[in-house]
Amino acid sequence: MNRDFLSIVGELNLAKKILVVGHIMPDGDDISSVLSATLGLQKLGKEVVACIDWRIPWYFYEFDETNLIKGYDEVVNSGFEPDFMLIVDASSPDRIGRFQEFLGKVTTAVVDHHGTNTLFGTLNWVDTKFGSTAQMILRINTELGVSYDERLATINLMGIATDTGFFRYSNADEIVFSDATKLVSMGGKAYLVSRIFENKRIEQFKLLSTMVEHICTENDGKIVYSYLSKKDYESNNCTEDDSGGFVGELRSIQGVELAIFFSEYEKNEVHISFRSKDWFDCSKLAVLLGGGGHPRAAGCTLKGELSVIVEQVVREAKLMFSTQLEAVKNI
Ligand code: 5GP
Ligand code: MN
Ligand code: MN
């Protein structure tokens, strides 16, 4: 058994007031991990506050439990004084937003599956062998003796499903399927998880159409990129939450190895998502640009004018693409 895992379980057993923190720009794995840990620890009678310093995309409210997640101001104004902080699915301090202020003041455990993790907790259980952080929370809950009901199993399953592209990505390995099986056997419902993606607004399709109009290709179609400006979101009556999954559409294009999607979510603040199919290591490119992630899915955020950022990032991407291609050929 992993030493850090056991230490974290030991600390959680002793803790009474726990802050469970997810990352900014939350995705399904993050929300699943925050809620699964929170519901599990609450079942053990602990006082637990779930929090994320970012707006939660509207489609996650398909799960009522998402209402449990509080924002930074709400947590601070409530006067809650945790004796332990559990951070999930976040690879570096900046990823937890203003909750960084609790670091150093309260014993902190980081539970994450990103290879780019900077090990910023008092205790760090970081293991890239897991396709999702949700699987690590399943192990923590199991070791703590949490009893699973249908809701908890479904919410826990959501993180595994979303981080593996519904069991389609290369990280959908035997452990993923066996953990999913375990959750389904405890009442988890995959069809309820898929509801979060079968709930689209017409405006999202219009936004997708704008994104498609902006598609550009490089390197004989092996690199594809597109962008949406703040104005594009506004004119389609959308926010950046409505473009979740667009980068996956870009990657799905025939012959594409690297897909890049630029999202100007605030004027002059651009989130960049990288996805690859077979061999390109996106996390290396993201780290170079100040972000992080996994080999096949990574991201970063840059400040500046959208067109300038697009040009810069595409230039860096092409350079790294050639370097990595040479390395792959030499294997
Ligand atoms: P996405 O493109 O969906 O935002 O993120 C893909 C992956 O990259 C996720 O695993 C996410 O945690 C990571 N990631 C995205 N943006 C950032 C960032 O700005 N910094 C770091 N460290 N990781 C990021
Ligand atoms: Mn995540
Ligand atoms: Mn994850």
Automatic annotation (TrEMBL):
InterPro entries: DDH_dom (IPR001667), DHH_sf (IPR038763), DHHA1_dom (IPR003156), Oligoribo/pAp-PDE_c-di-AMP_PDE (IPR051319). SUPFAM superfamilies: DHH phosphoesterases. Residues 17-160 form the DDH domain. Residues 221-305 form the DHHA1 domain. It comes from the Bacteria. One of its GO terms (molecular function) is nucleic acid binding. It holds the Pfam family DHH. This is Phosphoesterase. It comes from Fervidobacterium pennivorans.
